[in-house]
Amino acid sequence: MDTNLSQVGYYGEMEMRRLAAPAWSVERCLLTGYWLVAGYGLRAWRAFVALTAVIVVAGWCFTNHAWARLTTTGTPTSVNLQPGAIISTAPPPQGLSLARAWLFAAQEAVALVRASRPVQGHPHRATTSWTSLSGSSDPCCWR
């Protein structure tokens, strides 16, 4: 079967389905988002651009001091016994650099699809971050 012809048919089918859905319905909103982000799964560059945009915006948000503040813990230097005051010094808070924030955002964006690891005691099973969300790598405990 001709791959290009089947892609055109699928794209047309999805367009008709999107346009046939009632305006402001959940189905139409989802299909419109699917069309915008990935071209119904046929335009991979759109999905890549959308992922890159999410990483860039998230990285910028991590450097915005109004949304992401680092907390610092003071080290006690002296104690005044009369009023019971503890005097401590803390290093000045340092924010994330934009490069580190983008790196963190990129790592977290793909965190659930990291490579699998063998399950201890079960050499033929593997766990990914999806399966470790349950807190256990044993399928009996996933319920």
Secondary structure: elements and pairs:
Elements: H1 3-20, H2 26-38, H3 44-63, E1 75-80, E2 85-89, H4 98-109, E3 117-119, E4 122-127
Antiparallel strand pairs: 1-2, 3-4
Helix pairs in contact: 1-2, 3-4
Protein model, in words:
The protein is an alpha+beta fold and 143 residues long. It has a domain at 25-68 and 96-114. It contains 4 helices and 4 strands. The chain has helices spanning 3-20, 26-38, 44-63, 98-109, and strands at 75-80, 85-89, 117-119, 122-127. A two-stranded antiparallel ribbon has the order 1-2. Strands 3-4 form a two-stranded antiparallel sheet. A hairpin with a 4-residue loop joins strand 1 and strand 2 (85-89). Helix 1 runs antiparallel to helix 2 (26-38) and helix 3 (44-63) packs across helix 4. The protein is elongated and about 85 Å long. The two termini are 42 Å apart.
Entry summary:
The protein has 143 residues and is of the alpha+beta class. Helix content is 44%, strand content 14%.
Major sheet summary line: 2 strands, antiparallel
Number of DSSP E strands:
4
**What shape does the CA trace take?**
elongated
Look at the structure and give the mean pLDDT: 76
Query: N- to C-terminal separation?
Result: 42 Å
Keywords:
disordered C terminus; two-stranded antiparallel ribbon; 143 residues; two-stranded antiparallel sheet; alpha+beta
